[in-house]
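hi support,

uploading two proteins for the ticket. first:
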Amino acid sequence: MAFQSTEKETEIIPRYNPIITSILAFVFTFALSLFIWWLFIDPEGEFFIWKTFRLYEEASADLVLNYIFLFILSIILYLQFIDPEMEFKEFLKTKLKIREKETGLALFTANIVVMFVIIAYITLVWGEISSLFNKVKDTSLFFISSTGIFIYLLWSFFWGHWPLNELNKYKIRVLEFLWCTFLLVLTYAWFVLPAQIANGEFKQVISLNAFIGYLYSALAVTLFLGILWENWPIERIKNQPYQGILASSICLIGGYIFYAILALASTQSWFLWESPSNDWYLRNAANFSIFIISWIYFWAFYCGNWPHEYDKRFNIFMRTLLVFILALLSYYVYYIYLGGNILNESDHFYNKIPFIFQGLWLVILIAYDKFFEKVGLWKKPLG
């Protein structure tokens, strides 16, 4: 589907040397993230959005976190179920003769609308069922959006529309969306909801820190397999549902192994946490995974998923190694320097949790790539 593919019918090419273009793309997207942060999110900023609009001052971290990840969820829903063939963009370009920048802005705006539809549905419909869902600032929306991102991507990447291949494409999209949403509700009700109900009847299956740590570790493995490794080694299995079962098993089991390694590493002093309190080290597995996830996307869609010219296994090894190095470096830069000195998080409610800034950078990476086709730094070949 649209989110997974790194190729297009008319594939755009770097405007300059590929390495220089990738570096410029990082500088541009990172600088734009910092600008948006300082303009709207920085707790010490003059134009701090929560001061300007007087919105939930004590819970503004949760509020902005929810908006960022609900927007990521809206992009995934749009690209996977609503308009995977980008028919709306082609209509704007071919029929209305709108330029690339304007079509990108139109798609960006359309996804903001999708985001608010999601928010309205959860807060107004689910909110009637449980008060957990009737406020945008509640952490419930973060767990819903995070779980949805994982489930929708897992199904879209590996199940190939099975068993609906013979149906009309619009029926396929609706039925797959409903099925994935059912899995989302089931997962949330089993793993998250009991922990959020005070004096509830359901026993908590897993701590919320452990759940979010495992969830993002599994999401990182999903993106490794589906994007960075280009479906290796499951590409050899051509038939469904066997490919989907194998891939899902690798993501779920591999995600648990990855999560266990990261959780163990988080208890060591070299991973910044000398004396983690309670089960915070379990959440830190997710904190590192969000760096991994962002760099996977950048490497695949901004660096051309290099290298390609060697043996496939060596190519995959090098991509994985480079992404891990970049994630580890950015993790340390964030915690040691960026979070406190530049983002002004240290003495405020954010407490240096990278989901907000890394999520913001990921939103910009996806939007600049999918909606604006990296205009300015990439171009379409002549002819």
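and the second one:
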Amino acid sequence: MKRLILVFSIVTILITTNHSTVFAQTNAVDKKISLTILSPDKVKDYPGREETIKVRVTNNTDKDIHDVLVYITMADIKKNMTVNLEDYSADKPVFINTLKVNESKTIELPIRFVYTSDYYLYTTVTSKEYKEIVSSDAIPVEILGNTKIDKSKVISVVIFEPFVLIGGIMLISLRRRYKYKVV
């Protein structure tokens, strides 16, 4: 019994005094390239809206970064899926030959919103030189439906249309019945 208590005490002491730190992911400060959406901060409009997303790309390293690609990514949060940006004319990335040491560049990425839904739009940057992919914080995009339907008219049509159809069918069948009985 004394051995069990001794072993338990030693294990407890070792676990509580072990202060080794585990790094599972690099910190945002350690990223080689940073990316920030400058404008707009949100979009709320109808389908067909064209927007230019302005982004600042910054080299955080002490050497030049070559072959940098900056592009838009969107997620449809109503459907829980990513968006095919070909439909939005936003599938072509902006290519930067060289991003010099501590240099920042402002990039404009055009997009045309075509479908009604709620989205998160964010921009992404990568380099052929590094295997690091960095995305900006997302901006909310709400594309509204452009139909202006009066609910009271819809309800009245939904309720009365079946009665009108049934009445019309009954009227036609009665007319046929009397037409062929007389002859």
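thanks. also noticed: The two ends are 113 Å apart (CA to CA).
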